[in-house]
Prior knowledge:
The chain is of the alpha+beta class.
Amino acid sequence: xxxxxxSSADKEHAGGEREAGIRxxxxxxLPASIADLTDxxxxxxxxxxxxxxxxxxxxxxxxxxxxEGTGVFDTxxxxxxxxxxxxxGEQGAQGQQGQPAVLATRPAxxxxxxxxxxxHHDVQPPGADADWQSPPFEPTVRGDRLYGxxxxxxxAGVVSHVAAVRALADAYGDDLALGLVIFIEGEEEFxxxxxxxxxxxxxxxxxxxxxxxxxxxxxxxxxxxxxxxLRGNVTFKLTISTLAHASHSGMFGGAAPDAMLAxxxxxxxxxxxxxxxAVAGLTSSGETVPDSSAESFAADAGLxxxxxxxxxxxxxxRLWAQPSITVTGIDAPTVANASNxxxxxxxxxxxxxxxxxxDARQALEALQxxxxxxxxxxxxxxxxxxxxxxxxxxxxxxxxxxxxxxxMADAWGVDPVETGVGGSIPFIADLVRVFPDxxxxxxxxxxxxxxxxSPNESLHLGVFKRAILTEALLLSRLAEAPLAExxxxxxxxxx
Length: 495
């Protein structure tokens, strides 16, 4: 055996021992990771305007303490940035402070890459407590799932980063040369309105070779997924007005067009009879999708017996590669308060998902043009609270993608699936703009039964463990070789 062969064998042996140590560490510290997660879930960190911002601040403090406790970072701070109305649409005032985010850094050494780990600690509003089987902010384990608002989206993403960093610190100690940046956002669920300004003001601190966004899902509880496409989004409030004031429906109904009638007629023009989008100018990406049965979709989506899917083409094409339009809210008299009155105005919230490859502002213009052209009875339309977010496609040829997929396969025991996601993560477009050379990996801890944003949101604890192990193995492999070697060769394999 030559000296070079001996050195290579020693390196492989050391790598195998280190991987075994990482696996053992993740396994034995899983109860502590779950405990950390339950502590975070108890904090009702809803970032929306109508909720107490003190809870988001408390959540940021708790997250900062977790990363401080790893002993890995040179700096751990809680930061805020100004919202930028130009970056996130029409809503938001220039100079208003965003919600608190956690930023932690340690520089790379010896030519190793720097990895930025992203997640968010804010959560969606819980909705009605009566719709939950257990209180939304009292984390509860039932079977192999942890229930609670934010248990999966995205406080599990936060704790998976914490746990992976702990495993890395245990494996390397003072020899860790990998650069790490932690950015845990505090307002993702409210549109990331200060995200662009935060990137701009902390650009140097956040610069990285690889960015891991832990805010997506997996194929199922047994099969990991790397998200390679995300739809963009356009949301706005549309107010339809037809009358200067309310009038008695008996005296004027049948001749005076009330706003509810106009709204119903107008909104119906957005879809074809089969439920597919009927707005000229909204495009599809045409990307190839895996096979998926209508039966499994019906079960995952919770379709009632006899209810059929909408749209045309393969199910996953409808979710990943085609646009969609949803009316997510209506401001109108409630049934309990209804009187015999013609409504002068009705307001609706429209949420449209945009296929990869389409510019979100162009999609907004297409929607506005369609609605104005189809307004019945001369109804007046007003658009407000406009937000847009760009779609995203991952370049799957990079060495970081190869390393991530191998780490998933080794942690799960099953090869990962490359998937699209029907939801949107608009801030990724900001990451691409500010860090154009960084490789972006979109991972997550969710699965089809997670019900993120809905009552009874939950996290599968087996998925949680495998997600932690995946990230710890990925970070270890990126720590093993200098950046120049990674850029010129296949991803490093441990063991």
